[in-house]
Write a structure and sequence with these properties.
This protein is of the alpha/beta class and about 300 residues long. Helices cover about 35% and strands about 25% of the residues. The protein has eleven helices and 13 strands. It has a six-stranded mixed beta sheet, with helices on both faces. The chain has a four-stranded antiparallel beta sheet with strand order 11-12-10-13, covered by helices on one side. It is elongated.
Length: about 300
């Protein structure tokens, strides 16, 4: 488990992380989201003891990172896929990490096979593509078979097959009871990957909830209805003073849920072909709920 309690970090007059508290539970994949400059990377660095907080604390399994006896066996992290000597082979890079942490060399072979780099293990890491570097970084995070894993943009540079592999892999890690925190800007992918979300903006907590709950917060309660008796339904909605709009061959109703609309249709003898609550995407929910926390807003250029 990861626990952040009132974390605060300042760089001069800039507050990068502001009194931030959240919990990442084992057995689930937690997405860590926020606009650029929200403080995600700084927070992850404080969790890993790379930056010292100006206030609050971050605990891993109830202890600060600096007090862990075998850090790599407890926590695995991918923060920068390019943190590898370019002339060192993938195998040598992992062997160095293993040797300095008392991890058997056999584990190096195991993780290279897990991430699909066994056949290129002898190649210099400087010649790796971004996707291959990502896989090597994931291998390093797995080296100590840790209980807690932090991944910062793990699918950056991966092809669709690689992205699917990462998604299934982090789900498997969580299913084994591990704590998994994943930061990413690919919101469509996070909607498929993360079961829980921690969303921050300008260093402050915006939401901590399940992905489904976060999306539901952004939905205005609209229900889509299709019926062969559209005029009759519109008249019934007007009598109820309901807000509605026409969308192609459907009617979108706000302020009434599906059960109420079903009862209204039944009471008026109206046949329904469709009665479905409208669901926002994670991207739409994110934009709606973090709009005020975006540090820089770009103007839409005029078309000539």
């Amino acid at each position: 488990m990861i626990e952040a309690s009132r974390l605060t970090k300042r760089y001069g007059s800039t507050v990068a992380v502001d009194d931030l508290s959240f919990t990442v539970w084992p057995g689930r994949v937690t997405g860590f989201l926020g606009p650029n400059g929200a403080g995600k990377s700084t927070t992850m660095r404080m969790i890993l003891g790379l930056d010292r907080p100006d206030g609050g604390e971050a605990l891993i399994g109830g202890r600060p990172y600096r007090e862990l006896e075998n850090p790599l066996r407890t926590v695995g992290a991918l923060l920068d896929a390019h943190w590898v000597h370019p002339e060192r082979s993938a195998r040598a890079h992992l062997a160095w990490q293993a040797a300095t942490n008392g991890i058997p060399r056999k584990r190096v072979r195991d993780v290279l096979e897990i991430v699909g780099l066994a056949e290129v293990a002898g190649r210099a890491a400087g010649g790796f593509s971004l996707g291959m570097s990502q896989r090597l970084g994931i291998a390093g995070a797995l080296l100590g078979d840790p209980e807690v894993l932090l991944f910062d943009e793990p699918v950056n540079g991966l092809d669709p097959e690689g992205i699917l592999w990462v998604r299934k892999f982090v789900h498997r890690l969580a299913a084994e009871g591990r704590t998994v925190l994943v930061s990413s800007h690919l919101l469509a992918e996070m909607a498929l990957t993360a079961q829980d979300l921690v969303v921050i903006g300008r260093g402050k907590l915006i939401a901590q909830c399940t992905t489904e709950e976060f999306i539901a917060r952004a939905v205005d309660g609209a229900v889509r209805i299709r019926t062969p008796h559209a005029a009759q339904l519109r008249a019934a909605l007007e009598r109820e003073r309901a807000m509605f709009a026409t969308d192609d061959d459907a009617i979108l109703v706000s302020g009434m849920d599906s059960a109420e609309l079903g009862e209204l249709a039944h009471a008026n003898g109206i046949t329904l072909f469709e009665l479905s609550p409208q669901r926002a995407s994670l991207e739409e929910a994110f934009m709606r709920l973090t709009g005020d926390a975006v540090e820089y807003h770009a103007e839409t250029p005029a078309l000539s």
